[in-house]
Design goal:
Number of helices: 19
CATH architecture of the largest domain: 4-Layer Sandwich
Bound molecules: fructose -6-phosphate
Helix content: 25-40%
Oligomer: single chain
Distance between the termini: 11 Å
Strand content: 15-25%
CATH topology of the largest domain: Glutamine Phosphoribosylpyrophosphate, subunit 1, domain 1
Length: about 625
Amino acid sequence: MCGIVGYVGSAVASNRPLDVVLEGLARLEYRGYDSAGVAVAGPDGMKVAKKAGRLDNLRGELAEHPLPAGEAAIGHTRWATHGGPTDANAHPHVSYDGRVAVVHNGIIENFQQLRAELADHGVTPVSQTDTEVAAHQLALEMSHGGTLLEAMCRLASRLEGSFTFVALDRDDPHAIVAARRNSPLVVGLGEGENYLGSDVAAFVGQTRHAMELGQDQIVQVTPDSVRVVDFKGNEQTGRRFEVDWDVNAAVKGGYDTFMDKEIHEAPTAVAETLRGRTTPDGGLQLDEMRISEAVLRSVDKIIVVACGTAAYAGHVAKYAIEHWCRIPVEVELAHEFRYRDPVVNEKTLVVAISQSGETMDTLMAIRHAREQGSKVLAIVNTHGSTIARESDAVLYTHAGPEVAVASTKAFIAQITACYLLGLYLAELRGNKYVDEIATYLDELGKMPDRIEEVLGLESDVRELARSMSDVTSVLFLGRHVGYPVALEGALKLKELAYIHAEGFAAGELKHGPIALIEPGLPVFVIVPTPRRPLLHSKVISNLQEVRARGARTIAIAEEGDSEAASYADTIFWVPRTTPTLMMPLVTVVPLQIFASELARVKGYDVDKPRNLAKSVTVE
Ligand code: F6R
């Protein structure tokens, strides 16, 4: 939540700082789009422009009132926490003396106390934000003397909560200084210029050399130096890494929306997630599995912690891992985990799933788990992210950058990584022979083509969505691994088309929700393969039950399933012979396309649904 960009270069009075920061903000807008703002510092002092609403509003403002050229700039795109999305609450916030400008991501929990202290100095904030309070406090620290870095150390030690702060000093435009605790910040390393960003998307158009920062660290970036210290000012070393995707990965590439592009990237996301993880003899090698084999053999319970779509990937993992490894798997919404005093110990493996690797709820859950002695394995898409850094082992999904706020290809890659984990544990713990593992891996290897086949349904699914532009409620039913797919189908529709939608375990319907069925109500049913007759027949019964009550039934079923076809008003086929446990990789695709099209028909912004942000860095 909130996107932050910083730039400092050696050219005096150049437009480059502003250009780089605006480009970075455009790439980070998915982190929040309530307002946008920039500050530029140079020979003409420091100037700020900020506007409520999308980045385009800020661009309009800059066209009317250009900022002078400079040497350094910072920028911000906001997801509102303290105070509404107004011009006044937009970042950057400037201190009472005009000396420093600050942008911030996170929540300062002791801001009321800090605000009260300002009154003693005769300083009255003009906005409702916690950030402005911190900007004034930073200026007060500077008034005691020393550098911006020293003042930041003193301030950061006094702040409670989560924050990434980036500050610009009017009197020294050769440096930007940033502090981080629990919120993301990465450094981009250039030649004669350096960058800061909430994630690498901020500067990937400029450099692919990057440095990640640890918890409670402060960085001072000048055109040709990067200095990292802790909050006490002790020197620290940041970890360098190379960004493994280029800027083309984050452009729409001919699609109308990022979401459409990302739906079409699902086959590649699966293939990339599988790549390099198999051995010539058909086994598995997970280089990133830094937890010892002895510990993994002793695990007697797995708890998956995640939020939203990632949690639904965890639900799929439960079916696969329990079946393959015979280890009990619980799936817990990360924000509920630590508050319920969960029973975890050194024999519990906690698996955190997160596209961004920054979701605060998930981060707090893994910290709690590690405090209890559990090992944490993260399934993460973003390199250098906090969850990846703080976990004992990381299994990266190689889905590439996901820009649309609604997760699509990342969900599919997360499920793929969960399969890899399940098969790895099954092999290690002796639940499956290597040749059995090889058969599953072979099937997984066929999934990109199967997904490609389902993408061929696109125009039919879009046509169905267009015919439903006036629906007000949609239900999704599934059983076994179809159940999390139903939940995901409903979530996609809620977040993109703002339509009431609910996903149910198909068997649960008769325990209450069937009362919702009325003539014409659209009900999607995820039908399992007829090769699992018991499971299949139950879902077919559920399909009949809703049809009998007048529902408009849309089935996602295996090609040639005549029973499903006979009870469905509309049917979408997924490829025959897809293994039961791998069905979610194909059945979810039509639901993603459906939600995207319905949002488009209703005139909504498919990539940036209202009230949401891509990376949820507050609890
Ligand atoms: C929905 C969606 C969210 C995320 C959730 C977790 O389309 O994207 O539900 O899945 O906020 O985010 P990550 O995976 O970044 O931890």
